[in-house]
Design goal:
Helix content: 40-55%
Radius of gyration: 18 Å
Number of helices: 8
Shape: elongated
Low-confidence stretches: none
Largest sheet: 6 strands, mixed
Length: about 180
């Protein structure tokens, strides 16, 4: 029996168990992205895995993560993306980050840490777009941005979001806004 036949014969739960270990070892969604490129059966198994509901890009892997990578991971999530955590992802464009955030309707938690391209006005734009959604369609529960500026409008935006039941944490150089 060839290796290809053996891999294709593995039941879906077994493949998902294997891939959950890849996710643990890598500490991010990048490993699953690589695994999904191996063959069609692995790609299908990865796409059906609930691990795609959470995108986590740690600082250690941020340098090799770009717009294409984020869009690819978001596409794999197939509108099931529930949390996204980006840490020091300097190669991502503001447009790409906002596009993924706004198109991920099931998103509950957003954490963008040390991504200087996401300035305070981008935070306000995203938050305003979320708040325009009818409350029963809104899933966002928690929002964390660092590198925002300590301004009155940031605090006002934060207050409005918290009135709507969204927990917001704004940090500027390690200090809460």
């Amino acid at each position: 029996m060839s290796f290809d036949c053996f891999v294709a014969a593995l039941p879906l739960p077994v493949l998902q168990l294997i891939f959950s270990h890849v996710l643990e070892q890598q500490g991010s969604s990048v490993g699953l992205c690589l695994v999904s490129a191996v063959c069609k059966s692995w790609s299908e198994a990865v796409q059906s895995d609930p691990s795609w509901q959470h995108i986590n890009i740690p600082k250690t892997q941020a340098d090799c993560f770009d717009d294409y990578s984020l869009k690819h991971l978001a596409l794999k999530a197939k509108n099931q993306l529930q949390s996204i955590k980006l840490h020091a992802c300097r190669r991502l464009s503001t447009f790409c980050i906002l596009e993924v955030l706004l198109n991920s309707k099931q998103l509950k938690q957003v954490s963008i840490i040390s991504c200087p391209q996401m300035a305070c006005y981008n935070f306000k734009y995203y938050l305003e777009a979320v708040l325009k959604q009818p409350r029963h369609h809104r899933h966002l529960e928690q929002l964390c941005f660092t590198n925002t500026h300590n301004t009155y409008s940031d605090r006002a935006c934060k207050g409005l979001a918290e009135q709507e039941g969204i927990k917001v944490m704004l940090l500027s150089h390690g200090h809460a806004v």
